[in-house]
Automatic annotation (TrEMBL):
Domain Transketolase-like pyrimidine-binding: 601-806
SUPFAM superfamilies per the UniProt record, alphabetical: Thiamin diphosphate-binding fold (THDP-binding)
UniProt xrefs under NCBIfam families: 2oxo_dh_E1, PRK09404.1, PRK12270.1
Organism for this UniProt entry: Coemansia thaxteri
Co-factor(s): thiamine diphosphate
The organism's taxonomic lineage, starting at the top: Eukaryota, Fungi, Fungi incertae sedis, Zoopagomycota, Kickxellomycotina
Pfam families linked to this entry: E1_dh, OxoGdeHyase_C, Transket_pyr
Protein's UniProt name: Transketolase-like pyrimidine-binding domain-containing protein
């Protein structure tokens, strides 16, 4: 019986042993769960019983791995044969540096002195040793007694051949022992059945035939073929086969452009005629759908594969943008969300994280080293709420990036070295040897299966052409391409090997290629009559529609009694659970008082009511970001931490009934990968409300690639809807250039609504919604509207900071009752007589409260001549609501857009032409705000205060 503190799980070592008797325990991470206190690690049986709950909350479930202890005989043998232990350790640690990995032979094999037996006093090649407990390799007769020559030869063949293993950097002793023992004990198990070899040959031959066909028929197309790296298709096929035979039901794949078409056509059942239809200049979607489409290197597919098993393997290759590696966190998020769905439907109590789904990421070598999203995504791999239970990474290493040689592309020995940040093992393999590639994949798969952690395959290949088929690579790499053009292709090499082994005849080889080319010719002919179909609203998405206009007003109210019940539950904890005294006094008790009175509901309470009411209706919610559990401004407290035990509890997961689940995912300090992850979650299921909250609004800057290529354009390019919500704290409060602006202008620039609406009836159907709510009731309705509509759109919320606790910024429960909804425009309530209004000031965000306070202070002076209108949703532009508002002020002659942002930022450039189009004839829209500035705002406090005062004064004076 064992117990291990979550914060104190260590290895034990013995003299001469690499972790003797170690029980490998990946401890449960203190993450939120309702009804189960996270405490000391529990035995495997207990973990299995509570696994179903854990995965719903996004836990990385502990897995107990007991590695066999060394026997006393083995320990004694290791102590007596210390020299041999050192030699074996050297091969395991640095043998990879002496391997034959480069198909082009440009990188020469190194002579490593540490691999010489004589260095350890083992100069006598005939000297016999018992390797029991030292090496898992055995002699040809199966004995553990081997000579120095036999040991040296076996070590060289295993660790310095065409496959190289890096695993000694792994800090966990048991993992290192397992890896070494597994590699060494399976070293002789390399014979493949003839049928398997035939399969590999056919894949390679068809891949080469496809590239040749494309070059002949579409010679001017940049197809980024697989030529030179054809072994990648063998690696992927072997992985799919292993997954299928091990019971994995789902594989989620992300990859860049190189080789994508080969893999789609030959492995993932993508229709060649659909591809040829698009290559002839046609759309990949029905013409009646408002979709712009994308280039061929971003095409996706989602087939079911079967390798002779009782059930299928469903493979989903996701769409990717041209921004290298941006798809990686999307794959992780999509896979995580799908795992939650699978486990929710799975009744097997013994199921573990990663049993049903695997993540597969394919990379380019230069991108793997150079793109920061790689490091950010790897950083998520072992975290609670983000782990997939292990991802298999395949680096298609062409040894060049565009025209950049490896010496200029990285500062590390290997392109895979960045993966060592998460202690992932790396398997390097020479792409000239397809069978060794398959063997490397088998080792990688077994490691991932055992430890549920990421593993890297560095597949070292070459690129037959330049960066694309129209490029001339010898401009910059003459020596490399002289070698490439003189050598035989990988498929031809393997074909010759198969003929020598009698598995394929010369006639077989010709027939295989000819049959595939004929198939492609037939598909090309049929492509002229091909009619594309859409598959975007099927499965879990069935019942939703592709919107034709923006639904901005929908009844999202909830009965007051239900709101009170949900609100009370949001701060209810067991008496034995000791909440911090300040939370009891300043958070729990005030919330209960507000709910009882039904007035002065603050922002955090309204948000909790939105969450709780959606959960009660069966929706799931994932709230993600840095410190979202308590909130950046200590306002939310969706999770409580017991002050005695540090157990975590989420009250909203105990509302009762068949409620949904709230996952509070406190993320690491990443925006690019985390936002990509949440986008992946959002496109997997329409029943999950995924919310990403930035610590401050401008933190979205570092995730701009995800915003540009996925969130703003994913539906337009690929017909993939997303209901992702981005909560971006925004507002000028003297904090300086950073952390003030969420850069609303950038999101508005990406919105596709009409610029000048001269026709009042013109329909708006934006790619995303951008809102600046100023009351708790507004955020309540916004969040509920995301799930209550029959379509999904991304929502960008320029949320508050100072309004979170501003007494003027509160709402009543009646404003959230049935019959209420989000209001894109909040009418002026300050002017006593609309007919007397001469100036209408349009404003968005917290500036309204500054103006309203100043308005109240000088109301006698203003005498109802000024009206202040809040624009709560900027996109879609609320044209009809603002038109009605202007009709109330029929005597107005001045119309102003007032903002605290600089003139070249904020919403001004977006609203100016739209507001101008609805103003009375002859009227012009004025501007009050800060002057254009390169920074969002000044960092000098006295200047800031003077500017803010001037904005308010200009808006309310001169009447």
């Amino acid at each position: 019986m064992w117990r291990a503190s979550l914060a104190n799980v260590h290895h034990t070592r013995r003299l001469g042993a690499v972790g003797a008797g170690l029980a490998w325990r990946r401890a449960a991470v203190a993450a939120p769960i309702a009804g189960w206190a996270v405490g000391p690690a529990k035995p495997d049986s207990v973990l299995r019983r509570c696994y179903h709950e854990d995965i719903v909350y996004g836990y990385r479930v502990p897995k107990v791995f007991d590695y066999p202890d060394y026997s006393s005989k083995q320990l004694s043998n290791r102590q007596q044969q210390a020299a041999l232990v050192c030699l074996v350790s050297a091969y395991r640690s640095i043998g990879h540096r002496a391997t034959d990995l480069d198909p082009l032979k440009i990188q020469k094999r190194q002579a490593i002195p540490e691999l010489d037996p004589a260095r350890y006093g083992l100069a006598d090649a005939s000297q016999m040793f018992d390797v029991d407990g030292i090496l898992a390799i055995k002699s040809e007769s199966g004995s553990t007694k081997m000579s120095v020559a036999e040991i040296h030869r076996a070590l060289t063949d295993l660790y310095c051949g065409h496959v190289a293993f890096e695993f000694e950097h792994i800090p966990d002793t048991a993992e290192r022992r397992w890896f070494a023992d597994h590699v060494e004990s399976t070293s002789t198990d390399t014979k493949l059945a003839a049928a398997k070899k035939r399969r590999f040959y056919e894949l390679l031959a068809r891949s080469e035939a496809f590239d040749n066909f494309m070059q002949k028929k579409f010679g001017q197309v940049k197809r980024y073929g697989l030529e030179g790296a054809e072994s990648a298709i063998v690696a992927l096929d072997e992985l799919f086969s292993l997954c299928n035979h091990s019971g994995i039901a789902e594989a989620v794949v992300g990859m860049p452009h190189r080789g994508r078409l080969n893999i789609l056509i030959d492995l993932l059942k993508y229709s060649p005629r659909a591809l040829f239809h698009k290559l002839q200049g046609n759309a990949e979607f029905p013409r009646d759908l408002p979709a712009s489409g994308d280039v061929i290197s971003h095409i996706a597919s989602s087939p079911k594969l079967n390798y002779g098993c009782t059930s299928d393997l469903h493979v989903t290759m996701l769409h990717n943008p041209s921004h290298l590696e941006a798809v990686n966190p999307v794959v992780a998020g999509y896979g995580r969300a799908k795992q939650m769905y699978l486990y929710d439907k799975n009744t097997d109590p013994g199921c573990a994280l990663g049993d049903r789904l695997i993540g597969i990421q394919i990379h380019g070598d230069a991108a793997f080293t150079g793109q920061g999203v790689i490091m950010e995504t790897l950083g998520l791999s072992n975290l609670p709420h983000f782990s997939l239970g292990g991802t298999v990474h395949i680096i298609i290493n062409n040894q060049i990036g565009y025209t950049t040689p490896a010496t200029n592309a990285r500062s590390t020995l290997y392109t895979s070295d960045v993966a060592k940040m998460v202690n992932a093992p790396v398997i390097h393999v020479n792409g000239d040897y397809p069978e060794e590639v398959a063997r490397a994949m088998r080792v990688a798969f077994e490691y991932r299966k055992m430890f549920r952690k990421d593993v890297i395959i560095d597949l070292i290949t070459f690129r037959r052409w330049g960066h694309n088929e129209l490029d001339e690579p010898s401009f910059t790499q003459p020596h490399m391409y002289k070698i490439i053009r003189a050598r035989e292709s990988v498929p031809k090499q393997y074909e010759r090997q198969m003929q020598e082994e009698g598995i394929v005849t010369k006639d077989d080889a010709s027939e295989t290629r000819a049959a595939f080319v004929k198939h492609l010719d037939d598909e090309l002919a049929a492509s002229k009559d091909f009619v594309p179909q859409a598959d975007h609203l099927k499965g879990k998405w069935a019942g939703l529609i592709m919107s034709t206009e923006a639904v901005t007003t929908i009844d999202t109210g909830v009965p007051v009694a239900t709101l009170r019940k949900v609100g009370e539950k949001s701060v209810s904890v067991d008496q034995a659970f000791h909440v911090h005294s300040r939370l009891t006094k300043h958070h729990i008790q005030p919330r209960l008082k507000r709910l009882s009175e039904g007035t002065s509901v603050d922002w955090a309470t309204a948000e909790a009511l939105a969450f709780g009411s959606l959960l009660k209706e069966g929706f799931n919610i994932r709230l993600c970001g840095q410190d979202v559990g308590r909130g950046t401004f200590s306002q939310r407290h969706a999770m409580f931490v017991c002050q005695d035990t540090e157990n975590v509890y989420i009250p909203l997961n105990s509302i009762g009934g068949k409620q949904g689940k709230l996952e509070v995912a406190n993320s690491n300090l990443s925006e690019l990968a985390v936002l990509g992850f949440e986008y992946g979650v959002s496109i997997q299921s329409p029943t999950v409300l995924p919310i990403w909250e930035a610590q401050f609004g401008d933190f979205n800057n570092t995730a701009q690639v995800i915003i540009d290529t996925y969130i703003s354009s994913g539906e337009t390019k690929w017909l993939r809807q997303s209901g992702l919500v981005m909560l971006l704290p925004h507002g000028y409060d003297g904090a300086g250039p950073e952390h003030s602006s969420s850069r609303i202008e950038r999101f508005l620039q990406m919105c596709n609504t009409p610029h000048d609406l001269t026709d009042a009836g013109q329909v708006q159907n934006p790619n995303m919604h951008v809102a600046v709510p100023t009351t708790p009731a507004q955020i309540f309705h916004l969040l509920r509207r995301q799930m209550k509509r029959n379509y999904r759109k991304p929502l960008v919320v320029a949320g508050p900071k100072t309004l979170l606790r501003l007494s003027a910024a509160t709402s009543s429960l009646e404003e959230m009752a049935p019959g209420t909804s989000f209001q894109p425009v909040l009418s002026d309530s300050l002017a006593d007589d609309p007919g007397l209004v001469k100036r209408v000031v349009f404003v968005a965000g917290k500036l309204y409260y500054d103006l309203a306070k100043a308005y109240a202070d000088r109301k006698d002076e203003i005498s109802s001549k000024i009206a202040i209108v809040r624009v709560e949703e900027i996109c879609p532009f609320p044209r009809s609501q603002l038109t009605r508002e202007l009709e109330r002020f029929s005597g107005a002659t001045e119309f102003i857009w007032c903002q605290e942002e600089t003139m070249n930022a904020g919403a001004y450039s977006f609203v100016q032409p739209r507001l101008q189009s609805i103003l009375p004839s002859g009227a012009r829209l004025g501007y009050i705000g800060r002057e254009p500035l390169a920074a969002p705002v000044t960092g000098i406090s006295c200047v800031y205060k003077a500017e803010q005062a001037q904005i308010i004064e200009s808006a309310l004076s001169g009447i």
